[in-house]
# Entry
Amino acid sequence: MSTPELGLPMAVAAPDLPARVRIYEVGARDGLQNEKATVPTEVKAEFIRRLADSGLTTIEATSFVHPKWVPQLADAEQLFPLVSDLGRSSGVHLPVLVPNERGLDRALALGARHVALFASATESFAKANLNRTVDESLAMFEPVVSRAKADKVHVRSYISMCFGDPWEGPVPIHQVVRVCKALRDMGCDELSLGDTIGVATPGHVQNLLAELNEEGVPTSALGVHFHDTYGQALANTLAALQHGVTTVDASAGGLGGCPYAKSATGNLATEDLVWMLQGLGIDTGVDLARLTATSVWMAERLGRPSPSRTVKALSHKE
# Structure
């Protein structure tokens, strides 16, 4: 008998937490993009459908970057039409990553209505990932956001290296705030604060959120994206929830990681997040048993077990 069938975790609410949290599922894009072996398009589509069946309503589907940079996602044009009906029939949002206007063109041509950019809070990562300075990358994003908003497309921006950078070390809060304000001012609907190498701690999280509020960026426009490199992802998530954040990025089965941190253990696992939220009495709309089964299914296709502690515990697989 699995633990949920025994009524666990027992829901015990904590004060001053949101009643509901939207999970922004990134497993199909961020989780799979660093896989060395090519995952068949049909498997990716089935993965997305199973995630939707588990109750997830925001599932990042793919990325319209140049195939040379992310070979794993070179099949974006083939994949998106295989799952786009979920948006029409089930109300599932299927955001896609677009790096520039060319990526936006490709996404819009297939009917995407939610897009995401990938910005950086540090010069080193902007240079390594975008081959531009921070300001040059912001200038590149302006026409993308402008065109998307003119077409009534929802725009999110990830901001990488919000808490620490592998080349620069600690990242000053004012530096992150400057980039966030610029993206918000140009029209981004939502900002995802990324702990790309997993070095954030709860006090740092709350201080950054408070400073963003003081500078006019509302909590309602913010999401958080934590990596569990040092085992802090859930603690940092709880700190964000206590501040009022209601959007949390996570990856089914803990898929993914950061290539710039040798000890990185990947994204916060969606199952681990759901277990904590259910224990706090916070609604997610997610069926944990179905989600766990989906991650076990995907792990079998990748040929290795899921690193998620909750998946291991509920599936009795090491």
User: Anything to note?
Assistant: The first strand starts at residue 22 and ends at 25. Residues 283 and 314 are 20 Å apart (CA to CA). Residues 134-150 form the longest helix (17 residues).
